[in-house]
Amino acid sequence: MIPGAGHVLVKRPFRGLFLFLSITCMFVLGVAMQGKLYSPNAGEILNILGFVGDLGAGLLYIVARALDYGHGAVQIATADYGTKFAVVAGLLNFIAAIDAHNIGIGRKS
């Protein structure tokens, strides 16, 4: 739910802070570029995958949706880049969580 928190829990605070800053910056930049945030629906597969990517940002996604950001149609070129920034931020958070889990169980040092 909070980017980088897993690394802080496994006593890697600098890596956790770096992940928190990078994921948060990517997501905020995506929203600032008027990127679209996907909502849950059972429609097209690409929309579902976009929603899963956005949801990976955790609380960032929940707060952005609560503040009604990212609901407009993509009308400018930077908004399309913003959409991708937000999705990639969520996917990076998934990868960071898996990395923290691997460190926690001793598979990775």
Automatic annotation (TrEMBL):
Transmembrane segments: 14-33, 45-64, 84-105
Pfam family, one: DUF6677
Originating species: Acidisarcina polymorpha
UniProt keywords, alphabetically: Membrane, Transmembrane, Transmembrane helix
Domain DUF6677: 1-108
Protein name in UniProt: DUF6677 domain-containing protein
